[in-house]
Structures are given as structure tokens and as C-alpha cells.
Amino acid sequence: MAGAQLLKGQAIAENYLDSAARQIRQIKAEHGELALATIQVGRAKDTVLYSSYLGRTLKKMGIRWAPNLFPENESESAVIEKIRKLNDSPRITGILVFSPLPGRLSPTNVLSNIHILKDVEGRTFLKSHFGVFSPTANAVLALIESKMPNLAGKKAVVVGHGDLVGKPTAILLMDRLATVTVCHARTKNIESHISQADIVVAVVGKPNIIKGKWIKKGAMVIDVGENRVAGKLVGDIEFEPARARASYLSPVPGGVGPVTNVMLIKNLITLQKIRESMNGIC
User: Fold this and answer.
1) Which residue in 186, 182, 227, 184 sits closest to 208, CA to CA?
2) pLDDT on residue 15
């Protein structure tokens, strides 16, 4: 049995990067460089790896990277003060705070201090996202639409309801007229919801929590989870059993991840265009 076709994100990412590179060259010629400031508190292994990968992508695209690294025991007030300074800097296009933050820090307090016009992750989308939405949610949608361009009437289940990925993904799917169910820790009989879904998006952060046998035959399955088990990166979904039943399946790693960085760059371009239209505010 051949199993599901794997949705590898790199090819999709390259298509977006070509378009983004042209826009970046034009912005540079007319307005100067784009710059992304990042906030990292502590040196969690996964965060260090991702920041390094992101830095290489930004360099490749000709975007200035302004990393800000704080020790694990840094105070919340110091982190917020830095974010406010970056808000005020005309040389910074967007701000990204790496998650997760240490438990002592309140994500709500920290993230709410990012100015809406520098919110490259669309964290403030419920207020007004100006066309800037969660990069990961947009990556999920790009993978789905690469093989299933018409989502109207499809049954979709999003497992996980976090503000950064789960909720935005559900909204994007609803905007495409899919019928969306969002499952979470208090959802009863999750298996029954998943087994009826044409599209399953897993955003839980727990290895192999979704069993492959739950997947409807022929379903599209997008695994956003990244979990380290015995030194290996695995998703939220049992890979091989799911592959035997799904028609399309995004692998971990190599599925959603490469497209997410491209969507982050697209958001940075969008923020710059908004600034231009508002005569350089922020």
C-alpha cells in the first residue's frame, strides 16, 4: 500500500520566496531595508535551533535581523521595556517573541505590549490584524490548498485552540466555507470528531496523541506539533498508521515548518506596506 502523499513544505515555500524576494528588492530600492527584531528569553534548545534557522532565512532574503537575547531569569519589566523601545524604533519593521516564555513571565503581558503595526505574528488579530495573520496558520492553509483548493463544505477538525495557531487556523478554514470543529482538552470523544473529518489539523504539542486509526480514509492531515522524543522530532499524530489511511499528510519535520518562515516574511512585507500607507507611523 503506497499510503498518503507527503506534503513537504520546502517546494511550496520556494514558490512564495521567489515572489517575496522581488517585493523585498523593490522595498529596499524605495524605502530601505526590512528589519525583524526577535525577543528570546533563555536558551531553550528548540528556540535556539529555530532562531538560528530563522536568522539564516532572513539573511538569504536580505532582511536585517536584530536578535535580543535575555537570560532565563530576566524580569518581565525589562523584556517589556525592550519591546517598547523596538516599537518606537523606525528602523524595526516587525517584532517576534519566541515561545514559550519562562513560566515566570506572563505571555499576555509581554505580547500585548507589541504595537499592532509591528505584530509580525498577528497575535493581535482579534483586535485588528490589518491582513497580518498567524504565520503558522497561513502555512497550514497553504499546504491544504496546494492539494485541496476548494474547501467549501469540507468537514475540518482543528485539535488545539491556542491563540497563535489553533484559533487562527479555524478562522481561515471557516473563511473558505469549511465546516469547522475545534477540539481541546475538554472535548468529549475526540476520536468521533476526527474520524468524520475530511481535514485534520493537529496543534496539540503532545507526541502521537492522535492515533492513526482515528483518521478517516482519504483525509487531508496536517501535523503542526513538534515534540522531541529520544532526541528525535515527532508530531502530534501517529505517523505511519495515519499515513496508511490519509490521502495527504504533512511530515514532522519538513511539513509546516518551512512554509511558516515564508509566511512570517510575507507578514513583514505587509507591515512595511501598511507603514508606507500611513506615512511611516511606527
Assistant:
1) 227
2) 87
Grid cell, residue 36, equals 525583524
* Number of domains, the chain: 2
With contact defined as beta carbons under 8 Å apart, do 278 and 74 qualify? no
CATH number where 205 lies? 3.40.50.720
The answer to whether the CB of 53 falls within 8 A of the CB of 226 is no
Contact status, residue 12 vs residue 259, Cβ threshold 8 Å: yes
Same structural domain for residues 78 and 167? Answer: no
pTM for the predicted model, two decimal places: 0.90
Q: What is the CATH number of the domain that holds 74?
A: 3.40.50.10860
- Residues spanned by the domain of 46: 32-118
91 lies in a domain?
Answer: yes
Residue 16 placed within a domain: no
- Cβ-Cβ contacts under 8 Å for 64 (sequence gap 6 or more): 33, 34, 35, 36, 58
Task: Judge if 220 and 160 occupy the same domain.
Answer: yes
Ramachandran angles phi, psi of 227, nearest 5°: -130, 135
> Do 251 and 138 fall into the same domain?
yes
pLDDT the model gives residue 176: 97
Segment 209-247, tens digit of pLDDT? 999 999 999 999 999 999 999 989 999 999 999 999 999
| pLDDT of residue 1 exceeding 90 | no
The three grid cell numbers given for residue 124, joined into one nine-digit string: 493581535
Q: Given the C-alpha cell 501517529, which residue does it identify?
A: 238
List pLDDT tens digits, range 250-269: 999 999 999 999 999 999 99
Q: Could you say which of 118, 144, 176 is where a domain stops?
A: 118
The mean pLDDT value for 125-136 works out to 72
